[in-house]
Design goal:
The protein has 291 residues and is α+β, with helices and mostly antiparallel strands. The protein has three domains: 108 residues, no CATH class; 92 residues, no CATH class; 61 residues. The protein is built from five helices and nine strands, in the order ββββββαβββαααα. The longest helix is centred in the C-terminal third of the chain and has 28 residues. The chain is globular and about 70 Å long. The two termini are 21 Å apart. This is WSC domain-containing protein. InterPro entries: WSC_carb-bd. It holds the Pfam family WSC.
Length: 291
């Protein structure tokens, strides 16, 4: 038995320590727990990936279990992470922290992909490009294939068929046919080789997005750290001297030139998962990861 898992369950591979509070180390104890008062259903086994299904339902749509956490310094499950209090909200889609190597260990690397949810399929497909000739692809191969094709979203359905879509982060075409809610009999089996009729949909976290890039300060896109630092300081203090104003304008122009080249390369060659100027210039994504 592990970590407070309900008595009827002998094993829970996702029970352990997580960095739920984002402090950089893993001190929060998380595990699957059966819904108190619910009739025991042997078909429910803890160990479903909470990234995809943090609440479990029976065939009648009743809650039969949930993924919960006991935050460090607390004797009981804290309601900010105890999903029991949100059991009537079928819009819950994910539990994003990754399981750690052990108590007090450093937080794992962020997720390369963000789980968006399970969506209905339809025609024409909300994710238009079929990759792999319709053959089953693993999660990682599907992610890599769509990222290399400059897409921001990808999904798996059926027995692992992979599709890509969304040329920008703000392209939400993947939602065209609506979500499938937790507890629905058609909800995706995202951890299974047979996903089902729905589409397990994800976003590529580190994909370069021209629309987002244009919103950042031009200094961000200078290739050298010292140049970026000089640019930011000169622009910050531009009203203090003519020299700062001229330096700011010159370096901003250089930054925009580098950004334009990046966008042109991105458009002409299909782009790449990481910004051509490196993670420091393009951003490092959110604090997510995979189990």
């Amino acid at each position: 038995m592990c970590c407070g898992v309900a008595d009827q369950y002998a094993y829970d591979e996702y029970a352990g320590y997580y960095d739920v509070k984002g402090c950089g180390e893993c001190h929060d104890e998380c595990f699957w727990m059966g819904e108190p008062g619910a009739t025991y259903n042997p078909s429910f086994e803890p160990g479903s990936n909470p990234w995809h299904t943090p609440i479990a339902y029976d065939t009648l749509g009743n809650v039969k279990g949930f993924f919960t956490c006991r935050l460090s310094g607390s004797r009981t499950s804290d309601k900010s992470t105890d999903l029991r209090w949100l059991k009537d909200d079928r819009d819950i889609t994910t539990f994003s922290p990754r399981k750690c190597a052990g108590k007090g260990q450093p937080s794992p690397k962020y997720r390369a992909d963000e789980y968006m949810g399970c969506y209905n399929s339809g025609y024409p497909s909300a994710l238009p490009e079929l990759v792999g000739g319709g053959q089953p692809l693993s999660f990682s191969k599907c992610s890599d294939a769509c990222a290399s094709r400059n897409y921001h979203y990808f999904g798996r359905s059926g027995n692992g068929q992979c599709r890509c879509g969304g040329r920008t982060k703000d392209d939400y075409t993947f939602q065209r046919f609506g979500p499938i809610r937790y507890g629905d009999s058609n909800y995706c089996e995202c951890d299974s080789d047979n996903v089902g009729n729905g589409v397990c949909t994800y976003r590529v976290v580190d994909q370069f997005d021209p629309n987002t890039a244009r919103k950042h300060h031009p200094c961000r896109y200078l290739p050298a750290y010292d140049m970026r630092k000089q640019c930011y300081i000169a622009c910050r203090d531009a009203n203090q001297s003519m020299s700062n104003q001229l330096t700011c304008k010159m370096l901003e122009t250089m930054g925009m030139t580098y950004l334009s080249k990046t966008i042109n390369k991105h458009n002409d060659e299909g782009g790449s998962q990481l910004h051509m100027l490196g993670g420091d210039a393009g951003g490092s994504g959110s604090n997510l990861g995979t189990f």
